[in-house]
Please model this.
Amino acid sequence: MGTIKRIGVLTSGGDAPGMNAAVRAVVRTAISRGMECIGIRRGWQGLITSDFVRLSSESVGHTLSRGGTILFTARSEDFLTERGREKAVATCKMLGLDGIVAIGGDGTFRGALELSRLGVPVVGVPATIDNDIGCTNYTIGFDTACNTAIDCIDKLRDTMQSHERCSVVEVMGRNAGFLALYVGISVGATAVLVPEHQLDIQKDVVERIRESRLAGNTHFMIVVAEGAGSAVEISKQIHEALGMDPRVTVLGHIQRGGAPNARDRETATRMGYYAVNAFAEGRGNCIIATQEGGIVEIPIEEALVMKKHLQMDRYRIMEAMQVGGDRK
Ligand code: F6P
Model:
C-alpha cells in the first residue's frame, strides 16, 4: 500500500448508537495524520451512486452524543452484484480514495472483503447492537441497546406488578442471544430464551413460572431473543399451559436509537482512531477488534470465519438468580 492521502468513511447495515462517535474519530484522526476524509452516504450503496460529502473536523462536531448515523445507512442489494461493485471501484478511483473505513456488522465486512479483492483497501470497525461479530468481544452499540431495553423492561415491570401479570418481551439480536441474555440477567427475568440454547417451553418457561409463583411471586418477566422464537407464540403456549393471559411487548427498533452511553462513545472513538492508524502505518484489509488486553487488527478473511459463542455460564447464572430456583 502506498502513502494514504485520502480515505472514505461509511456506515452500513443496521445502525447502532456510537456510529457517529466512530465517524468523528475517523475524520479527526485522519486530519491529524494529514489525510483528507470523504463521507460516503448510505453505506456501500453510496459508492455505487456517488453519494458523498467532504468531511472536516467541524462537520463532525457535536455528533459524539447523537444516536443513528449522520452518514445514513442502507443494506445495499446492488453491491451484491458484480456490476454494482465495479461501479463502486470506479467511484473510489474518481474520488481518489486510497482506502475506506467501513463501520457496521457482518454484512458490511462481507462487502469490505469483496471490495478489498478488487484492490480497494478497507478497514472495518464493528458496530451492531447484536454483538454477534466473531473476531471481537465487543461491538459498538451493544451496551447502549442493552440499557435501552432494560429501561423499557423496568417500566413494564411496574405495570405487570400492579396487575399481577406475566410479560413476554421480545428483544432484537438477529440469530444471537447476547442482547437477550445480558438484558435478562439485568432485569431479573423469570426466564430468558436464546437461540443458542435448545428451547424446551415446558422446562424453560412453564416450570419456571410455576416455581416462581410457588415462591410467592405474582408477576413474571419472560425475555425472548428474536432468533429464539416469537413472543406472541410463546405467550400463547403460556396461556395454554397455565391459563395466564400474558401481555406481549416487541421492543423492536427502539433498541437501536438513543444517545450512545460512555462505553459506546469511548470504544467507538478508540476503534475509529485505530482504524485510521492502521492505514497511516501502511496496513489495510483488517477488522479492528477488542480482545483481551486491548485493540487488535484481524485480517478480514480470517475475521469472517471466527465464531463467538454465547457464554453459557451466564445462562446458568441467570437461572441461579430465580426465586425458588432450586430445580436440581
Ligand atoms: O443487526 C441489527 C438488527 O437490529 C437486528 O437485531 C435485527 O434482526 C435487524 O437488525 C433488523 O433489521 P431492519 O432494521 O432491517 O429491520
Summary: The radius of gyration is 22 Å. The chain has a mean pLDDT of 96.
